[in-house]
Amino acid sequence: MLSQDKRLVIAKRIAEELKEGQIVNLGIGIPTLVSEYLDDKEVFLQTENGLLGMGPPPTEENLDIELINAGKEPVTYLKSASFFNSADSFGLIRGGHVDVAVLGILQVDIKGEIANWAVPDQPILGVGGAMDLVTGAKKVIVAATLFAKDGTSKLVKELTYKTSGIRKVDLFVSDYAVFTFTDEGVKVLEMMEDITLDELSKKVGFNLEYAAEFNSSK
Amino acid sequence: MLSQDKRLVIAKRIAEELKEGQIVNLGIGIPTLVSEYLDDKEVFLQTENGLLGMGPPPTEENLDIELINAGKEPVTYLKSASFFNSADSFGLIRGGHVDVAVLGILQVDIKGEIANWAVPDQPILGVGGAMDLVTGAKKVIVAATLFAKDGTSKLVKELTYKTSGIRKVDLFVSDYAVFTFTDEGVKVLEMMEDITLDELSKKVGFNLEYAAEFNSSK
Amino acid sequence: MDKVIESSEIRKLFKNGDQILTGGFGLSGTPLTIIDELLETDIKDLTVVSNNLGDLGQGLHKLFMQGKIKKAIGSFFSINREAVIAWSKGELEIDLLPQGTLAEAIRCGGAGIGGFYTKTAVGTELAEGKEERVIDGERYIFEKAIKGDVAIIKAAKADRLGNLVYHTTARNFNPMMATAGNIVIAEVDEIVEVGELDPEYIVTPHAYVDYVIQSKYSKVGSEYVESR
Amino acid sequence: MDKVIESSEIRKLFKNGDQILTGGFGLSGTPLTIIDELLETDIKDLTVVSNNLGDLGQGLHKLFMQGKIKKAIGSFFSINREAVIAWSKGELEIDLLPQGTLAEAIRCGGAGIGGFYTKTAVGTELAEGKEERVIDGERYIFEKAIKGDVAIIKAAKADRLGNLVYHTTARNFNPMMATAGNIVIAEVDEIVEVGELDPEYIVTPHAYVDYVIQSKYSKVGSEYVESR
């Protein structure tokens, strides 16, 4: 698959995971694409700079550059929306009132701990709301291609990049497979490609197991 | 003087102390009377249950029992007013944004520490906003008759009632005299009655001194 | 989505021993209809977090008189004579907090803050047994966040999703209580359609609210009267 | 009372070494006119508290390029290439905080809270050297409140007393910054008479605001343009 196609497949699969009525925060990158696959499902998008009820990007006509999302892109708002300040916005996030956060990652380890803010060998001068979202959301889904551009697996035995927090994520939707994280660690929930468990294990570099609820029909 | 006259004299003297544009919180009792002597001076009254810009009591016609002050009496609001929640209201108080708090007291000691919440030999089940106001207001003025009903002085060498906090008050306006509190302790700033310093000292039970800025013309 | 339910349906949301966060200052902003529904249940041993325990024999006062309250956490109970007597006899536990500390502790509970340091009450009886810490040369005491099993609040208007706006000083503790309850029930004077409340002016976003009920009380002169 | 002044009058309110709290997220809600006035002064060695250091070469970015900023406290500086280079060379101090921790620390600074415990960043590099505490079985780290000498903020409308309302996501950090500055200057798009703002909807009460100036910037398409 082309890179953009992979991204869309991941976004679409995550959209299926969201439930009617949920409060959802979508991170920058693939997570942002999830909103395009929600169809009729009413989920309420929160953006940490102070809006619940974010709508699609504006047309040129109704562009308002003060009305932006956390990625600083212009957005619109829905009629159910509300605006609030940054302290209250992070109160919503950290206090456990966001049902699902969908986040990009650099790495996720086999226990579900993620690294998504600090690129190695580069000055680390940005964290934004990444750590608050990992810590506070009721459910965290990570969205990423399974392999970095240099071919290394983002699913790792131990993080080599800096951790975003001690909170374990719930789900990792990649272009090859969907992984769940329980007390027993990572398990394969679904294959997204026509690939065997052995082949996938070889690719990531360690043995993977199916989850009890593995769905082979997907 | 009759008891009510004394209260009015104290309230009037405190009104003189307030400056145009100040944010002022008036406690229950004599402090509430201060608002009647503000004349044309524009001060903004804050009430800790969530209103800045409190107006006079309502007429029967415009009574709204949800619109009350901290003493649970119906009030009105001025056109410059704003409403906020209790956490923000105490942020305003504790954060030092109230210029003057005028408070009733049971006792004030010679260093300026006050007791105004717990009556001895009675169950202590109420504190309300008393301690927040003592702690947070930029200036604290206490308003009380100098002597309790049993004749004992409210100005004492050491508190025998429970303290409201370590913060020292700035001014004590009583029916006999106005007292200031500096690092050197209590001083007499003005006489409110035709009485000598000696007579006053005898009445309170210890020696009092004039403040450097004592104003004999008052 | 529609969060509006019949008031009687809320009875099943409570259980024995719950910690109930209750909005209101005096009776202003108190969810009187929700409290009436609680009176119809056999729930007991409640811990109530509220500035006061009702007023003038109304609101939480009725709940207390029915013997449902085991413990009260708040700032001002002195005027509730019966509560004072019960406390003296050891029949009612009371945790007394300065009003600002109470408000802040609930805000923290809803915002994922574990606790905070306040200047208020340093050196007083209410600081006894509490950790003291000097920050930048000033003395502070530690206070833990407060959360609840159920928050019962009163607002002026709700839309069907649960966005809320308040009326004057009836706002008081309600917005914080709304953030800190596991289940949040809002009683309102008026229910409107989604889109009727201005997004700039919504005080409590719908994310915090689980159920909305129509209040049965109206203001008539100087009283709250059950009228519906 | 009238807090409205000419924008050039604010220059005298700053001094070398000040800690300046600045509202805004990206450029949305950033007081661009106030920053331009600062550029006209010879003030230096500033510590700036702000989510980011401007964007697209505007706002605080200009102040930084003029060499006035000694230290920045915020959550996201990565996109400011020049700041990153200066930091690498040791010419710029940076305190990096998670965005929610930053917002909360400023709110505490304005509200008389000395510090607080947050779950965010526990176990990460940003928690290094910070006190950890377990509250009810969960791990938290301690963060100190943040205050400033001057807060510079941007609102949509002010009345002449300084009551403020905001526009959509341009609200962001501004209401907190307004509470935590010793001197608070608000830049606004529109100045109205007292009484024109609804008391229920005022976000920042006038008690927090010392000076109000008219913004010289307008939104034109996808840009903020100096137009007055």
UniProtKB/TrEMBL annotation, chains A, B:
This is 3-oxoacid CoA-transferase. InterPro entries: 3-oxoacid_CoA-transf_B, CoA_trans_fam_I, NagB/RpiA_transferase-like. It comes from Psychrobacillus insolitus. Keywords: Transferase. Signal peptide: none annotated. Belongs to the 3-oxoacid CoA-transferase subunit B family. GO terms for molecular function: CoA-transferase activity. The keyword Transferase applies. PANTHER family: KETOACID-COENZYME A TRANSFERASE, SUCCINYL-COA:3-KETOACID COENZYME A TRANSFERASE SUBUNIT B-RELATED. The lineage of its organism: Bacteria, Bacillati, Bacillota, Bacilli, Bacillales. Pfam families: CoA_trans.
Automatic annotation (TrEMBL), chains C, D:
It comes from the Bacteria. InterPro entries: 3-oxoacid_CoA-transf_A, CoA_trans_fam_I, NagB/RpiA_transferase-like. The keyword Manganese does not apply. SUPFAM superfamilies: NagB/RpiA/CoA transferase-like (SSF100950). Keywords: Transferase. Pfam families: CoA_trans (PF01144). GO terms for molecular function: CoA-transferase activity. This is 3-oxoacid CoA-transferase subunit A. It comes from Psychrobacillus insolitus.
